[in-house]
Amino acid sequence: MKFTVEKDLILREVQIAQEIIASRSNMSILSNVLLHAADGELIVRATDLKVSFETRIPVIVTEPGITTVFCDKLQGILRSLPEGEIEFEQGSATTGENFVIRPKFKEIDFRLRSIPADKFPELQTHIDSGYFDFPQADFAEMVTQTAFAVSDDETRFFMNGVYLETDDDKLIMVATDGRRLSLISHEIPEGLESFEGVIIPPKVLNLVRRLSTGEGMLQMAIADKHIFFAFENHYISSSLIEGQFPNYRRVIPETQHYSVQLEKAVFSEALKRVALMVEKSRRIYLDISSGQIQIRSEESEVGVARESVSVEFEGPDTTIALNYMYLVDPLRVINTDTISLHFTEPNKALTIYSEPLDRYYHIVMPMQLQ
Question: What Gene3D superfamilies has UniProt attached to this entry (predicted)?
């Protein structure tokens, strides 16, 4: 095998591959990336057995072939090389079984040990039918508004992913860790038929979001306990999480009696300052009264912090205790300058909306006041 390609072109794809397999053992074939050069293109593949990745880039193929090499070392080598064309060679009379990497016009020579490609697991990165088109920008927003709320409690594995379902004329994406919930909806894309709800690992969703340009469409398909994505030169697949996702509708308030409207940036900065005095519980208090919210931390050996923010509010004085991160996280992804907090009682759910209202909202369960 022998081919030539621009450094930046191959480095980007190898970095994606390494991101997928970074958690695998260094001794495993799964720590290798597969490289297949033929017909003027290089196929790059990687997998951790749950998420699989394939991409194709144009190269100059002198001799077709296929091999696998340790991805982390390949990435490090590529990063260290100067810009320009790089020549790769495998299995020639002069190189033996080493995978040789040498930049053109530079006296630099790296030789990586390789493992035959027949030891690499077979990947199903795409299927022949069943895809529907979805705007890349809209998909990225759906992931942004939900993925951060996924539970990291491995004993409740069915909450370790983002739930996707169809409901009448809506496609709904929702995530929860049992103390907070984030939901966003989108009109049903053309060509999508109703399906049973599925739980998608956040790893593949965040990968697709990061790789998408935000322009044009991506293709999605759900089949055989897997989800498939195809866009630009990328093919990505992932196994779905099996299990019964909680009935999230039970925690969505039907009505809430009171609402507070305030500037997102002002509120967010105040939260961060008060949080400097918060200890392990992460508990902060919102003292809501006419015209203002006072944000305060608990009294402790470290001290206490208080800051008041002007708001629009009419209702009874109310104190709500919350995990401050459950406010900071949604504020980070809401894309309007103004937000509103909706509530009824201190011990019942608080809902965070954008102003004006959009297709998403975030629900936070209060903590005990004492």
Answer: 3.70.10.10, DNA Polymerase III, subunit A, domain 2
